[in-house]
Write a structure and sequence with these properties.
Layout: H1 2-25, H2 56-66, E1 69-74, E2 77-82, H3 85-92, E3 99-100, H4 104-113, H5 128-145, H6 153-168, H7 182-194, H8 203-213, H9 230-233, H10 241-263, H11 266-269, H12 273-284, H13 293-324, H14 326-340, H15 355-368, E4 377-378, E5 383-385, E6 388-390, E7 395-398, H16 400-405, H17 444-455
Parallel strand pairs: 2-7
Antiparallel strand pairs: 1-2, 3-4, 4-7, 5-6
Helix pairs in contact: 4-10, 6-7, 7-8, 7-13, 10-13, 13-15, 13-17
Length: 456
């Protein structure tokens, strides 16, 4: 008994000593001239003030109490919530704010995808020169391939036609809209990536949907995502097991499709992103390059994750809003009938002739507020942003929810008003606070999502 008591005594002493060392040497506190905010304690950060992680409401309270630069912390990470359109533009236009914060699932995906070779892959999962090269390549070729232009319009129209035929086949029966648009959106993305589409009943399309819908919603600002060393433990955590399995299935599917693409004539003759990426790989030969099979697989996966759910969810919410606001639905139908007649589908070339329809589409996106904040950035070095000192590695969050809810920039900002995008003459007008996907330099994910949302 005495021996057991002594062991317990020394175990307690050891735990207290280790806890004290962690408390003393783990980053905490607020450096001089750091943005104001919640208490940031060593070891735990702001978890005592925000035990369940941040919500949109807590972000709104942070902005209201501390202003456009408000801070909090998780474990050994400091985070700054950047609000206000002018402040966001100022901060995220700076090179010092262009670093990429590490994402748990991106790092885990990259580790599995590359069989342990790298966690620095894709657009979301890379930084520095690799990120710049991949982003430049993707934006350049997306424009060349026709994103936001008319060259992909026939493929989109084909999807719209097949979707309408599917809806007509339901013979007026109630339809669950939650996943109705996923097939059309996935097919358009697959056409851009692989240069082909599948009919509604095709087995490959069902496999595509099954794989990409397996990923459950993951809140990237959940406290668990910031646990030190969590990347190496992710595959063993029961709470993340379903997502890890889904990632494994998606990686296998994409790799199999790439190998099938390379083995066919499509790898040479098809004008699609995979073909262009393979050409870029061949150009480099044996020279060091940022273009390889692992990177291409990661980029393709990110295109689907970024483009599918954002577009499908926005379209589904649009149906809900049209049902909720029959007056707006009636005006859209009247404008379409007046400009296009009863049988013609709308096209990019007629967008300027449909100001109210365009205003409704953008007001749906603004009201939906699908993304509360853009992909987190991190400070590349110690710097000053918006007058505050920001240490290297600080995570920076663009508060898009604030931009889309600002009462000074939007009419009745919490409710649906297409007039937010119309001038006094009924013509479409832009608003600098319309940031549904991100802010800063041209955004890859906005390029993927916005054209589909406005045309499907």
């Amino acid at each position: 008994m005495i021996w057991a008591a002594e062991n317990l005594y020394w175990a307690v002493i050891l735990l207290v000593a280790l806890g004290s060392l962690l408390f003393l040497f783990t980053q905490g506190g607020r450096p001089k001239n750091f943005p104001p905010g919640l208490p940031i304690l060593p070891l735990v950060g702001s978890l005592l003030s925000m035990p369940n992680g941040p919500t949109r409401e807590s972000f709104r309270n942070l902005k209201k109490k501390y202003g456009n630069m408000a801070s909090f912390g998780y474990f050994d990470k400091r985070l700054v919530l950047v609000s206000g359109v002018s402040t966001m533009r100022e901060v995220f236009s700076k090179k010092e704010a262009s670093g990429r914060a590490e994402f748990l699932l991106s790092a885990t995906r990259n580790y599995m995808l590359s069989e342990g070779r790298s966690i620095n892959l894709g657009i979301k999962g890379s930084s520095g020169n690799k990120w710049q090269e991949q982003r430049r390549f993707l934006l350049h070729h997306l424009r060349d391939l026709g994103f936001g232009k008319t060259s992909y319009e026939p493929m989109i129209m084909e999807e719209v036609t097949e979707l309408m035929e599917y809806l007509e086949q339901q013979n007026g029966q109630p339809i669950t809209m939650k996943r109705v648009f996923n097939r059309s959106v996935v097919n358009v993305l697959w056409g851009m990536v692989m240069g082909k589409r599948y009919s509604y009943g095709h087995k490959k399309l069902q496999t595509l949907l099954k794989n990409f819908l397996q990923l459950t919603d993951v809140y990237i600002l959940s406290p668990i995502m910031f646990l030190p060393g969590i990347t190496k433990l992710a595959t063993y955590l029961p709470s993340l097991k379903e997502n890890v399995t889904a990632i494994q299935n998606i990686i296998k599917f994409i790799k199999d499709e790439i190998h099938e693409f390379i083995a066919s004539d499509d790898g040479i003759t098809t004008n699609c992103l995979t073909s262009l990426y393979l050409q870029e790989m061949r150009k480099s030969g044996d020279k060091p390059t940022y273009f390889d099979m692992d990177q291409m697989t990661a980029v393709i996966m990110e295109m689907f994750v970024a483009g599918m759910e954002t577009t499908s969810s926005t379209l589904t919410f649009g149906i809900y809003m049209m049902a909720k606001h029959p007056d707006a639905q009636k005006r859209v139908q009247q404008e379409l009938d007046q400009v296009l007649g009863n049988d013609k589908q709308p096209s990019f070339s007629e967008k300027e002739l449909l100001p109210y329809t365009l205003a409704v589409i953008h007001e749906i996106q603004r009201t939906f507020k699908l993304i509360g904040f853009s992909l987190p950035h991190s400070a590349l070095e110690d710097c000053y942003l918006a007058g505050y000192f920001i240490p290297k590695g600080t995570v920076l969050l663009a508060n898009l929810d604030d931009a889309l809810s600002d009462t000074q920039l939007w009419k009745d900002s919490q409710h649906f008003h297409p007039d937010n995008f119309l001038d006094e003459n009924g013509k479409y007008k832009k608003n600098e606070a319309f940031l549904p996907f991100g802010i800063g330099k041209p955004n890859v994910w906005a390029a993927i999502s916005t054209p589909l949302s406005c045309t499907s």
